[in-house]
Specification:
The complex is a heterodimer of chains A (186) and B (169).
Chain A lengths: L1 H18 L2 H38 L1 H9 L1 H7 L7 H12 L3 H17 L9 H12 L6 H9 L9 H24 L1
Chain B lengths: L3 H15 L4 H10 L1 H25 L1 H16 L6 H6 L4 H15 L4 H12 L3 H12 L7 H24 L1
Helix pairs in contact in B: 3-6, 6-7, 7-9
Classes of the chains: A mainly alpha (186), B mainly alpha (169).
């Protein structure tokens, strides 16, 4: 990320110095930071609302039902998960609801539990690899942050993207699960 | 179709009330979690929008997308999506910054805004998650994780582009 930022900024500044001069360059730089404030304020409303609704959802039995429904697939995907399977279920449920930030603590807890039972410390177990791979493909059922973002920017069809998001993330999760099985059995 | 989400919200609220959930405080608890997210987002947005802004104003971004156009057109990707696609695996906030830039420029309902939304929703910040999860327990040998996770994000992007084209033409 450091390299990316450094490269983008330097290339941009040097190019604009040549094409438009110093004043315009400074104006673009400050303008970018100003746009950041504006965009944050714009997206705050949508995010507050959807995170609030997800807070309500979490308190209902639906959240437990989702992790309960995940129990079988988890036993299949993570044969050596042991004590960590509860944390894994919550991690995956949160990810499916687009709650990336809520998923992280459960994910870290799952990693800690799996490392505690790991006979080869410092070497990733099968289940750890699968957890990371499934996280990277991230089956998404309800992209809350994205919906909030789209609404904040005045979209007339904010929810129109939900179905394609679900389908494409389902595709990549399916491919990932398949590849995980192949890697484990090798 | 537009009524689906509001009706869903009413159903959820009614169900929660039936389950004796204290709806108001649950909402507050959830919404509070948006604050650290927004707080983390602002500096990152400032950094990325500054970089993207100066790149665009200088004409460097147009030159780059123009230069890459034959390649991106051959595989059917809108060149304006490149910053989003390239930043997505590195940082979630930076990807949101790239998408909000597209929203401001072209609007969330434009073709590029729709496809960008699908790409953001369908993929994950791979490198950050890998570093955090493995780093937190001191794993050094990651075995097949990195290639597998890279394949997963590649499939996410490809499927996202494919379904965007199917749905939004």
């Amino acid at each position: 990320m450091d390299m990316v930022f450094f490269a983008l900024l330097c290339i941009g500044i040097v190019t604009e110095l040549f094409t438009k001069g110093g004043d315009a360059t400074l104006a673009s730089l400050i303008g970018g930071a100003g746009a950041a404030v504006q965009n944050t304020v714009t997206m705050a409303g949508g995010m507050l609302f959807w995170m609030g609704m997800l807070g309500v959802l979490e308190k209902t039995p639906l959240m437990n039902a989702l992790s309960g429904a995940l129990r079988k697939p988890i036993a299949f995907l993570f044969p050596d998960a042991g004590k960590a399977s509860g944390a894994i279920a919550l991690n995956l449920s949160c990810n499916m609801l687009g709650l990336g930030n809520a998923a992280t603590p459960y994910g870290l807890e799952a990693m800690r539990l799996m490392e505690a039972e790991n006979p080869h410390k410092g070497v990733a177990t099968d289940s750890m690899c699968v957890l990371l791979a499934v996280n990277a493909s991230c089956l998404e059922l309800f992209p809350a942050t994205l919906l909030g973002l789209r609404q904040s920017f005045g979209s007339a069809h904010a929810a129109a993207v939900v179905l394609p998001v679900v389908l494409s993330s389902a595709c990549s999760t399916a491919v990932t699960v398949l590849l995980c099985r192949l890697c484990i059995h090798r | 179709m537009s009524a689906v989400v509001p009706i869903g919200i009413v159903l959820l609220l009614a169900y929660a009330a039936l389950c004796r959930v204290r709806v108001f405080s649950a909402f507050l608890e959830g919404a509070e979690r948006a604050l650290p997210l927004l707080k983390k987002l602002l500096p990152c947005l400032a950094a990325m929008l500054t970089a993207i802004g100066v790149l665009r104003d200088s004409g460097a971004l147009d030159a780059l997308t123009g230069f890459l156009r034959p390649v991106t057109e051959a595989i059917g990707v809108d060149a304006r999506l490149l910053p989003l696609i390239l930043l997505r695996p590195l940082s979630g906030s930076a990807a949101i910054a790239a998408l909000s830039d597209l929203f401001t420029e072209y609007g969330p309902d434009s073709a590029v805004g729709m496809t960008g939304s699908v790409l953001l929703g369908a993929s994950e910040t791979l490198l950050y998650t890998l570093a955090l999860y493995f780093g937190s327990v001191g794993i050094r040998k990651t075995r097949f994780t990195v290639p597998l996770a890279l394949i997963a994000s590649f499939v996410s992007v490809a499927a996202g582009l494919l379904f965007s084209r199917l749905f939004f033409g």
